[in-house]
Design brief:
751 residues; alpha+beta; Jelly Rolls; 3 domains; 5-stranded mixed beta sheet; 13 strands; transmembrane; SID1_TM_fam; SIDT2 protein
Length: 751
């Protein structure tokens, strides 16, 4: 700010000259200049004690803006990397820690300011040392500091095997998050009069400790691989156990296929199984009562047995005619392996389907959800390019305030500053791939069952659509990739990349839950991805314009509330409504008939309870955003998605149990274990080792040492546990309705 400051004492450490012999005498000159009109001074030259720092030894000292300090460190034999830690009990005054090479002309220590000092001699000492506020950033690596600073230094970057540790106290605290002081001027004072900062002194402590060895890198990589590859082994063991169980079951069924058992077994089947395929029972997209809108004019297999059984707001699956590629689903049934009398008496209520069939996926084109891989590629490529550019800028400029690492546990590898934060994301990729393999194996088994006209596959259980599962597995892998990209250089603008596929995962999970009970009116891939793209668009806009922008928060809150109301209407009426010019007239008509002319309760009580709770939560989140206006908009947007997903999942579980269905052992174990893992994962997530909502210097106050293998920190543990928890959550969605695999689809409730 071009201010002038008054100091009563100034000191500088003289640059260590190059000597030819220990007894050589060298002369130097001291120039003293001042802005004061007349000043007297005393000059004192003293020998600097403890100029060379020792490994694992603490050294305390004082520094001011007019009295910078620097020390020398020499790499011991066998140590290739060290961590320079500087601490202080005082947050202010703000200071800068810099690591500078001792020799210039050897590659790593050339001045970025263009200073030619010492370049004639390839091993000349770097003189002068850049130890002033206005030039400390000219060379080497540097960080601003309040209470903590840590810089990892590698021997390969300093050919002289030594470096300077420079500490400079800044004249102002604003860069460290402090307030810019106001110095009032007296009436007779000149604007050019220097400002007295009084005793602007900082007490600091420096210690240099060896960093981890290359063996620790190898061990940590093997540990990470071992954890997640064990899930592959466990999955293989479970698959082998399941295969043995199926072989035993086939033996039992073979015994049941004897002629003496055929007649009795056939008598245990409901009439609908002996007549024709239930897929021929209902017209595609129709919602008539026992009638069909298909061209084939088939009749209702359930007869005329209608009743009021079930909870208000529940309907059962109404199947539609399969399109051409799915015609095997409409073939005649074979023999049924178990009695269905327990479900045969269950009445069927027609479900509410949408009239607008073009807006929804058919049973065939729903597999186009796999195209998420194309979206992922086009999204990830520019992200990778951007973070590589960030890392390059950090390496070239030496400015370590660009990226918000946990500097006390940031282990570099090659050009990467924090390899451990990148490695820990491997779990998302490996477990996402494992989930895709599980889905592929299930799809192969299902297709084989269709080819042999298996009764279970044709007429029982939740309709098997694997497209969204493939999309979920791919999204989990991409979350790992983009989280790794974010951790290449974590900062405010890059955080959107870490959360973008979290939005996708939350949205896809909600779509999958809805698709389970509404396979005929699930949103098309184009509509779903358009909505997710809109969410990511708002995320970008919020990151760029949302920080303290009242107008943005007003607009976003209004859009949030309106979208909540529209989605609530869509869910309540099962898609049987239109948003057009007559919407207001129809709303007034419903209010008049249901509230004025006669007071009637909601037709679908359970669905209404869910939507009321959802609206309360979403309106509360909208009000919170409008009032508080959090700086972390990406996390706020993700919280909205997670809250809605958890609410819908809880509703699904409750309605499933109220419908007389049960949760089998495997999904129950998945739910319990996944909940426990999520609890531990969130504990490590909220440790907060850094935060880009503060200045880089303030963020480093939250830095902590590694807690696992001297390589991984709390946030790495979050990566491990959250990837396992997400994988478990996907397995819950995959196996949640396995208890319905032996239940006819027209006996399965819709909610």
């Amino acid at each position: 700010y071009q201010r002038k400051y008054a100091y009563q004492e100034v000191s500088r450490t003289l640059c260590q000259p190059q000597t030819k012999a220990e007894v050589e005498t060298q002369n130097f000159y001291v120039d003293v200049s001042t802005l004061s009109l007349n000043a007297s001074y005393k000059l004192r030259v003293t020998r600097v004690e403890n100029f060379v720092l020792q490994t694992n030894e603490r050294f305390s000292f004082n520094a001011t803006a007019a009295q910078p300090q620097y020390f020398k460190y020499e790499f011991p034999k066998g140590v290739d990397s060290v961590i320079v830690k500087v601490t202080s009990v005082m947050a202010f005054p703000c200071s800068v820690i810099s690591i500078q090479d001792i020799l210039v002309g050897l590659g790593g220590g050339t001045s970025r300011s263009g200073d030619p000092c010492g370049t004639d001699n390839p091993s000349a000492p770097q003189c002068p040392v850049y130890d002033l506020d206005n030039n400390v950033a000219f060379i080497g690596m540097y960080q601003t500091m309040t209470k903590k600073a840590a810089i990892t230094v590698q021997r390969k970057d300093f050919p002289s095997n030594s470096f300077y540790v420079v500490v400079v106290v800044k004249t102002e605290d604003e860069v460290c998050g402090g307030a810019l002081p106001y110095y009032p001027l007296s009436k007779n004072a000149s604007p050019e009069e220097p400002v007295d900062q009084h005793d602007r002194q900082k007490m600091l402590e420096v210690m240099v400790t060896p960093a981890i060895t290359s063996e620790a890198y190898v061990g940590s990589v093997l540990f990470c691989l071992g954890i997640f590859l064990s899930f592959y082994i466990l999955t293989l063991l479970i698959a082998c156990w399941e295969s043995c169980r199926q072989q035993k079951r086939k033996g039992i069924l073979a015994a049941m296929d004897s002629p003496s058992l055929d007649t009795g077994h056939a008598r245990s089947l409901p009439d609908s199984f002996l007549g024709h395929s239930p897929y021929d029972s209902y017209g595609y997209g129709s919602f008539g009562n026992g009638s069909s809108s298909s061209a084939e004019g088939v009749t209702d297999s359930a007869g005329s047995t209608e009743s009021s059984y079930g909870f208000a707001g529940q309907e059962q699956f109404k199947r539609r005619a399969a399109p051409a590629p799915m015609r095997p689903l409409a073939m005649a049934m074979g023999r049924w392996p178990r009695s269905l009398e327990s479900v045969g008496g269950r009445p069927r209520l027609d479900s509410l389907s949408s009239v607008e069939e073009d807006d929804y996926d058919t049973l065939a084109d729903i597999d186009y959800d796999k195209n998420i891989a194309t979206i992922a590629v086009f999204y990830a490529l520019p992200v990778i390019q951007l973070v590589i550019t960030y890392q390059t800028v950090v390496n070239v400029t030496g400015n370590q305030d660009i990226c918000y690492y946990n500097f006390l546990c940031a282990h570099p590898l090659g050009n990467l500053s924090a390899f451990n934060n990148i490695l820990s994301n491997l779990g998302y990729v490996l477990l996402g791939l494992l989930f895709l393999l599980i889905i592929l194996q299930r799809e192969i088994n299902y297709n084989r069952a269709l080819m042999r006209n298996d009764t279970h596959a044709l007429e029982c259980g939740i309709p098997k659509h694997f497209g969204l599962f493939y999309a979920m597995g791919t999204a989990l892998m991409m979350e790992g990739l983009l989280s790794a990209c974010y951790h290449v250089c974590p900062n405010y603008t890059n955080f959107q990349f870490d959360t973008s596929f979290m939005y996708m995962i939350a949205g896809l999970c909600m779509l999958k839950l809805y698709q389970k009970r509404h396979p005929d009116i699930n949103a098309s891939a184009y509509s779903a991805y358009a909505c997710l793209a809109l969410v990511i668009f708002f995320s970008v806009v919020g990151v760029v314009f949302g920080k303290g922008n009242t107008a943005f928060w007003i607009v976003f809150s209004v859009i949030h509330i309106v979208a909540t109301l529209l989605l609530s209407t869509q869910l309540y009426y099962m898609g049987r409504w239109k948003l057009d010019s007559g919407i207001l007239r129809r709303i007034l008509h419903v209010l008049y008939t249901d509230c004025v002319r006669q007071c009637s309760g909601p037709m679908y009580v359970d669905r209404m309870v869910l939507l009321v709770m959802g609206n309360i939560i979403n309106w509360s989140l909208a009000a919170y955003g409008l009032i508080v206006r959090p700086n972390d908009f990406a996390s706020y947007l993700l919280a909205i998605g997670i809250c809605n997903l958890l609410l819908y999942f809880a509703f699904y579980i409750i309605m499933k149990l109220r419908s007389g269905e049960r949760i089998k052992l495997i999904p129950l174990l998945c739910i319990i274990s996944t909940s426990v893992v999520w609890g531990f994962a969130l504990f490590f997530f909220f440790q907060g080792l850094s935060t880009w909502q503060k200045t880089p210097a303030e963020s480093r106050e939250h830095n902590r040492d590694c807690i696992l293998l001297d390589f991984f920190d709390d946030h790495d543990i979050w990566h491990f546990l959250s990837s396992i928890a997400m994988f478990g959550s996907f397995l819950v969605l995959l196996t949640l309705d396995d208890d319905l695999d032996c239940v006819q689809r027209d006996k399965i409730y819709v909610f």
